[in-house]
Amino acid sequence: MSAPASRPDAPRLVTKKPADPSTAASRYAVDPTRPNPIVQADAMGSTVLAHLLTGPALFGGLGWLLDRWLEVTVFVAVGIILGMGLSLYSIWLRYGTSQATTTDHPDGSMRAAAPHNEEIQ
């Protein structure tokens, strides 16, 4: 049994007009000399995850060593909390601060600022 032929007056299943590459905005164009935006996003996510894991682990380990040396049990918790706070602060400094201009673009749009990441650029 063959599939019915599509009619020109049949309803479309797609709700958006297909993108025309010749009229695509320049921010969606891929520059072959720069890394792929998907790779940049993956690298940023990996870096943030590494910061979130290493901060508490490093400062928690230092707190554990201090606990063993002083024979108390408070510095592990303080080290983990301090490490998480410093990790979140460093992530905020690197990726959370806005670099957006205060003026609108000529086409009337408000584009978000690009994150400043010296590892990827």
Number of strands: 0
Distance between the termini: 56 Å
Counted by DSSP, the helix tally is 2
* Helix content bin: 40-55%
How would you state the average pLDDT, rounded?
Answer: 74
Rg computed from alpha carbons, rounded to a whole number of angstroms: 25 Å
- Beta-strand content: under 5%
Low-confidence stretches: none
Shape: elongated
Quickly give the structural class: mainly alpha
Protein name: AtpZ/AtpI family protein
Region (Disordered): 1-33, 101-121
Transmembrane segments: 48-66, 72-92
Organism: Janibacter alittae
Describe this structure in words.
- The chain has helices at 37-70, 75-96.
- The mean pLDDT is 74.
- It starts with 36 loop residues before the first helix and ends in a 25-residue tail after the last helix.
- It is mainly alpha-helical and 121 residues long.
Jot down its keywords:
single chain; about 120 residues; mainly alpha; 2 helices; about 45% helix; about 0% strand; elongated
Brief write-up:
The chain is mainly α and 121 residues long. It has helices spanning 37-70, 75-96.
SSE blueprint and pairings:
Layout: H1 37-70, H2 75-96
Helix pairs in contact: 1-2
Transmembrane segments: 48-66, 72-92
Region (Disordered): 1-33, 101-121
Organism: Janibacter alittae
